Amino acid sequence: MGKALNIVVLAKQVPDTRNVGKDAMKADGTVNRAALPAIFNPEDLNALEQALIIKESCPGSTVRILTMGPPRAADVIRDAMFRGADGGVLLTDRKFAGADTLATSYALSRALLKIKPDIIVAGRQAIDGDTAQVGPQVAEKLGWPQVTYAEQIEKITDTEIVVKRRLEHGVETVCSPMPMVLTVNGSAPECRMKNAKRVMKFKNAKTPSELNEAQDEYLNMECCKKPYLNISEWGVSDIECDEQQLGLSGSPTKVKQIENVVLQAKESKQYSASEGEINSLMVELIASHTLG
Amino acid sequence: MNNIFVYCEIEGGAVADVSLELLTKGRELADTLGCKLEALAIGHNLNGIDKQLALYGADTVWIADDRELAPYRTLPHTAVTCGVFEAEKPQIALFGATSLGRDLGPRVSSALHSGLTADCTSLVIGDHQDARTGTKYENLLYQIRPAFGGNIIATIVNPDCRPQMATVREGVMKKEQAAKPGKGEVRQIDVRKYLKDTDLAVKIVSRQIEERKLNIKGAQIIVSGGYGVGSKENFKLLYELAEVLGGEVGASRAAVDAGFAEHARQVGQTGVTVRPKLYIACGISGQIQHTAGMDQSAMVVSINTDPEAPINKLADYAVTGDLLDVIPKMINAYKANSK
What we know:
The complex is a heterodimer. Chain A has eight helices and 13 strands. By secondary structure, chain A is of the alpha/beta class. Chain A has one domain: Rossmann fold, CATH 3.40.50.620. In chain A, strand 4 (62-68), helix 2 and strand 5 (87-91) form a beta-alpha-beta unit. The longest helix of chain A is centred in the first third of the chain and has 16 residues, at 42-57. Chain A is globular. Chain B has two domains: 4-200, HUPs (Rossmann fold), CATH 3.40.50; 216-337, Rossmann fold. Chain B has nine helices and 18 strands. The radius of gyration of chain B is 22 Å and the shape is globular. Chains A and B meet through helix 3, helix 4, strand 7, strand 8 and strand 9 of A and helix 3, helix 4, strand 7, strand 9 and strand 10 of B. Strand 9 of chain A pairs antiparallel with strand 13 (203-209) of chain B.
């Protein structure tokens, strides 16, 4: 259909907050991040699938992942490569740390100016914050249109994209010029599985830091021979930016207080499942006019 | 200047409930701060909208009425909202955490470089001292929300940037007409001053808005199921109990994710917030993600095989047992005892 596109997927490695086990909280009441597995943010996988669909319909296109996080976040780039992405950039630097959504969006948008994509695809929101802010904030920083809650791409031409989006009470189909930012809803198709051949091909894909840490002659040679195994790693000095707008100093929102959730106990009456006790429960509910 | 703005969503000529809820909260905050409450209505054919908004306490109603402004599109609404905020410099701006508000809010916050806190469950005015610099701030907006999958409650402040922006989900705040209606003084916005051609670049091809069918928010009695219900098949028992009691069926996120119930029934932080007369929690463990959406229920009955389930701390009546066994007994007992 359309011309070859430079597609970027914004992805985030997140703690799996959906599987919070008993050891997820430390004795002092803080969150034990180490006990939570780090996963590919679920809706970013929906986004990756849409990006791969676009790539297939526009031959010659490339899909690259842009993620910001600690060095281990390179995992999501490899994971995406196993599923069909061509490569990616890890944005990592201590100066990015402590960023709220706005400072995150600023850093991402500066990196995106360097990558110059035609279309940016992101998950609607990440499960660790559920804010859904970064997609629209990036779009605004770039001055590009946004289409949020995308469920299906209906059509893509050299200059335009037609997208069906899911609203809380219905669906809307919109046509947006490119470049633009698309955020993908969890109701969009799931991402394809990892492909065994691609896993074999890309399992040694590494960032420069990972190569350095591994100190492995063979790996070094592999990555030297096969440029597609090199995952880019950018720090603050690799993107043109105002450092004041990064990390903690670039974040208008500050966390004043964190409170662990302890449900407040109140007097509760205990009942067993016996017929007699259930009966007296219902009688009591009727007597208190809770049940009419 | 430095007042509280509420962005008001308009659906078919009427103001959305979530916006009226925000006006109710905004009125309370404005009274605490001694400032005005201003409503921002952007759309088309908005005649009479100021009357609706004044009833909920709006002192001023800003109206941007243009055919390009309805139905909602991101860029034109962002341009108008930013234009008004830049001129009026509100200290606080509130948006519904709806598909519209969550599309518009971040765009506006990014343009104005102001902080935005999503899905607040509580908004309170208070003071703040920066731990590092020692700078003291008076009368900030505490934006309180669950985070990290609901395992913590965070209080967020925006000390230096204005407006302090927050989104709030529908049903979280109470909706109440103001004791004394606001003046509802109308200010017409010169839309063409703010709109550029590029703001109209995205076109709506088609739009199907469904009638709201299911409304568990309005239900007085909710029989809600969690992952512990086990299957979609078992959920039928909950429907039976709900029907007998004259209630609706709700579900936890885990139950919805597992496909036991549709998303419209989801109660909790990422679903709807309910405050029924009676909430019967069946096979729900009681993660904060869920309880954030139901802890204001007048009466809570929990049915769980685990007597230590966190939900029981919140329950007025905790039944320890298998819901497949307990629910039929409840149905029988209700039929036998009700008149």
